[in-house]
Write a structure and sequence with these properties.
Elements lengths: L2 H16 L4 H20 L19 H9 L4 H27 L4 H13 L3 H11 L1 H18 L6 H23 L3 H30 L7 H57 L2
Helix pairs in contact: 2-3, 2-4, 4-9, 4-10, 5-6, 5-10, 6-7, 7-8, 7-10, 8-10, 9-10
Length: 279
């Protein structure tokens, strides 16, 4: 690899290694938002009979549902944090992958590059990569630049040239793919954790319900209904958050697999073209 390319990549790697990951602060901020929403929106006195959150929710309107979810108990803010986190990181991944795709259709870009390589027009393929941008365009541009640098380099034999170009493809890909997968591990974790937290809330609600049944004499029907309500609300929030996380994770991993496949496809064409032409 040339000194120019090495020096260009080194700062990028250094910057990536020293950059601050805000994911923890985002999760903390979303927990604060969820806590405020639980206390001041769901727990608003207008959602309950006589304006008292200790009473039953009102019987109709949106306030009925807000008050009902507030009755889910202390686990609700945690589950709301999970839901907001999945939503936030899904939006972030959607925007990031849209940018990584580049300025046009990736499949059309792949076809154009392969067509230019078929007639040995490396400069035109390089121009297409400049125009496309995004992760696929960046990788292909890096490989094509290296292609031009070593093609007529008499200090290297054919095998060395092919090996150098292959290494360039691997290095460029390894720099782009981690950025595509960023924060997906959080979404995958939330897919499992949301269900478990929801189950915890369900268990706590059922404990309250059975405690009401254990009273001497007539069961405390108000406490019984509150416990069952808390259990079901937490179950619903946990399952809903987990389902959203699973759908989001599978959708974005599919998009990433498609992008990496396109990179591999063009990279294979470049390597094939270079191997047949290099001396």
């Amino acid at each position: 690899m040339s000194n120019t390319q090495t020096s260009a990549k080194a700062p990028a790697q250094a910057q990536g290694g020293s950059s601050f990951d805000p994911s923890g602060l985002i999760l903390l901020g979303l927990f604060v938002v969820a806590l405020l929403f639980y206390n001041f929106v769901l727990g608003n006195g207008a959602n309950f009979e006589d304006g008292n959150p200790e009473n039953h929710p009102v019987s109709e309107g949106i306030q009925k549902w807000l008050g009902t979810f507030h009755k889910g108990g202390v686990v609700v803010p945690v589950l709301l944090t999970c839901f907001l986190s999945v939503l936030t990181f899904s939006i972030e991944r959607f925007l990031s992958l849209a940018k990584a795709t580049g300025t046009g259709s990736v499949n059309a870009f792949v076809r154009r590059v392969k067509a230019h390589l078929a007639v040995d027009n490396v400069d035109a393929a390089l121009a297409e990569a400049d125009k496309q941008k995004g992760s696929v365009g960046n990788v292909i541009k890096s490989v094509l630049v290296r292609y031009k640098e070593i093609f007529n380099d008499s200090s290297m034999d054919r095998d060395q040239k092919v090996s150098s170009l292959h290494k360039e493809l691997e290095d460029a890909t390894s720099l782009e793919v981690p950025m595509l997968e960023k924060n997906l591990s959080i979404v995958a974790t939330l897919a499992s954790v949301s269900t478990l937290i929801g189950l915890l809330g369900t268990v706590l609600g059922m404990i309250k319900a059975f405690s009401a049944l254990a009273n001497a004499g007539a069961p405390d029907t108000a406490a019984l209904s509150t416990g069952i309500s808390e259990a079901l609300i937490n179950t619903a929030l946990g399952i809903g958050s987990s389902a959203l996380a699973i759908i989001s994770y599978n959708f974005f991993t599919g998009k990433i697999d498609g992008l990496t496949y396109n990179i591999d496809e063009v990279g294979f064409s470049i390597m094939q073209n270079f191997s047949s032409k290099a001396k």
